[in-house]
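Cross-check.
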Amino acid sequence: MIGAVIAMQSEADILLSEMKINRSLTVSGKNIYVGTAFGKEVALCICGVGKVNAALGTQLLVSKFDVDCLLNFGVSGGLNDDTKLCQVYQISQAVQFDFDLVQLNGTKIGTLNEYEENYLPLSTLDIPFAAKKLGTADRFNDSTADYELLTKELQADIRDMEGCAIVQAALCAKLPVYSVKAISDVAGSGSTTDQYLQNRSTALENLQAALPSVFDKL
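Predicted model, tokenized:
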């Protein structure tokens, strides 16, 4: 069974519209839908925004539904000229750029205490979407300091608020984890909030069109 961990209802709807739902329930305040999509068994959890929500949603699917792999998809922010508005990408590596033990351990920014490297690996699929590096943090902003950290020090391509937390939880459970993102805004080219509101619908449409090829390879 595929465990899909999705932050927001609008993002989840693009898969729910394709699912034959056999049952729905609420666990620890999270709405979960179980059924089939594109010929595969799926348990979809709408986890909510942010890293704690993402990790909780992931663990619920692992513990309660015995999933074989984890999938995260949604809209995210681009960070450079190689990430185009509304285009779809898959994620190959992810880092939590608000996790900082530099002063204590002398490690790179984003390095979890139980790891030696700051970027965590994801599994990738044989699908026609370029692989990118993701930075995750519990903030949505136009901070110049965050932009400099993400692009210059971490050399990330995309940012979000859930992805790396899902990866961390999946790796703890020793399960493969996949992530596919559509770009709703690009940092450094105007207000990310305005871009997000303007481009979210088109980004989600493109992501929905990509789901059959994603599920075909899972």
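The first strand starts at residue 2 and ends at 6. Helices lie at 9-16, 51-65, 102-105, 144-153, 163-172, 192-217. Passed to J.P. for a second look.
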